[in-house]
Amino acid sequence: MDQWNGSQRAIVVKAYYKNSDSLTAARREFRRHYNLGRHDRVPSCKAIKTWVNNYVETGSALKNKPTKHTQH
């Protein structure tokens, strides 16, 4: 099971773009949005990059589903 749900991922991706593609600012905004303390868990920079890439490629920050390639 994924640690971060779709709504949480969407908040981070939106914050990333809103803050001039800043990973640090996206993490900071996530922390503020959920009223998390300094040592509470937030998405890693690597996770945010993955979510942003998934969003760009598929329109969703969720995991890419493997596609089945069919040959005719």
Structural notes for this entry:
53% of the residues lie in helices and 0% in strands. It is mainly α. Helix 1 packs across helix 2 and helix 1 crosses helix 3 (45-58). The mean pLDDT is 89. The longest helix is centred in the last third of the chain and has 14 residues, at 45-58. It has three helices and no strands.
Our measurement of the CA-to-CA distance between the termini, rounded to an integer number of angstroms, reads 35 Å
Q: Which class do the helix and strand fractions yield?
A: mainly alpha
Tally of helical runs: 3
Order of helices and strands: HHH
Helix content: 40-55%
Instruction: Enumerate the spans where pLDDT stays under 50 for 5 or more consecutive residues.
Output: none
- Please provide the count of β strands: 0
State the major sheet: none
Shape: globular
Proportion of residues in β-strands = under 5%
Averaged pLDDT, please? 89
| Rg calculated over all Cα atoms | 14 Å
